[in-house]
Design goal:
Elements (H helix, E strand, L loop, with lengths): L5 E4 L3 H10 L1 E4 L3 E7 L18 E7 L7 H22 L4 E7 L8 H14 L13 H11 L1
Parallel strand pairs: 1-4, 4-5
Antiparallel strand pairs: 2-3, 3-5
Length: 149
């Protein structure tokens, strides 16, 4: 397994809807994170290699009109894209599709707090990877609580 997974963009509406209805979500002040296990690599057809599924992270970005006008929505999506290429790629569990939804606060939230929102959301969804590459399952939740104290 590669040290850092590759990002794959979710582009079609059915992909977003699958994550929404079959996955779980976590709401933070700066963003909403939805997560769902990625589709099986067998559906990719004969061209999909044996290692193509698990080492990928699917990422979708969206901002509704509640966020603001077109300029503000684009700025919010740019901030979420930077968050995905930096922190989500490093912290999130591979083999999962994620949808980052902008909130009004995404525009004005300081960058360190937005990064913390993503990390906390991943932790709540139990999709946070440990630095050594392991995933943060039920045993990691107790360890994370001990670190915060």
């Amino acid at each position: 397994m590669p040290a850092e997974p590759t990002l794959r963009r979710l582009q079609r509406r059915p992909e977003f809807l699958r994550v929404r209805y079959k996955g779980r979500r976590s709401v933070a002040p700066g963003l909403v994170l939805q997560a769902c296990p990625a589709r099986a690599a067998a559906t990719d057809g004969p061209g999909g290699g044996p290692g193509s599924g698990p080492a990928e992270i699917g990422v979708g970005l969206t901002a509704s009109k509640k966020v603001g006008n077109a300029v503000e929505r684009n700025r919010a999506r740019r901030r979420l894209r930077a968050l995905a290429t930096g922190d989500l790629k490093r912290l999130a569990r591979p083999g999962t599709d994620y949808v980052l939804i902008a909130r009004r606060a995404t525009l004005t939230r300081p960058w360190p707090e937005l990064r913390r929102d993503l990390r906390d959301a991943l932790k709540r969804l139990k999709k946070l990877r440990r630095p050594d590459g392991e995933t943060d399952d039920t045993t990691g939740a107790a360890a994370a609580d001990g670190e915060a104290a």
